[in-house]
Amino acid sequence: MIAFLAEHAFAAASGFPTLPDGLFFGGGYAAVRQLGVELFGIAVVMVVVFALPYLSIWLIGKALHGITTDYKKEGLSP
Predict the structure, then answer these.
(1) Number of C-beta neighbours around residue 48 at 10 A
(2) Whose C-alpha in 1, 16, 41, 59 is 20 to 30 A from the C-alpha of 76?
(3) Which range of residues forms the domain containing residue 22?
(4) Is residue 35 exposed (0-12), middle (13-18) or buried (19+ Cβ within 10 Å)?
(5) What is the C-alpha to C-alpha distance for residues 75 and 71, in angstroms, rounded to an integer?
(6) Residue 77's pLDDT is what?
(7) What is the number of structural domains in the chain?
(8) 9: closest CA among 23, 22, 1, 70?
(9) What is the pLDDT of residues 39-57, one digit of tens each?
(10) Could you tell me what percent of the chain has a pLDDT over 70?
């Protein structure tokens, strides 16, 4: 939302003097670039949130020689 709502005066006062104005405040190309950075960050988080659990489950499955819910095949009672 920084790419849409940031105002340079408030950003500079809060310690971020290089932050451009947002798109709603005439930020132009700098605001579009900031939006690209934010979208890239969202994509990276989505990939990591998918990949880490997937990798964990895959490793557990390999270590235990498969994950199964077939109780009869394993000789367990449900």
Answers:
(1) 10
(2) 59
(3) 2-74
(4) middle
(5) 6
(6) 64
(7) 1
(8) 22
(9) 999 999 999 999 999 999 9
(10) 91
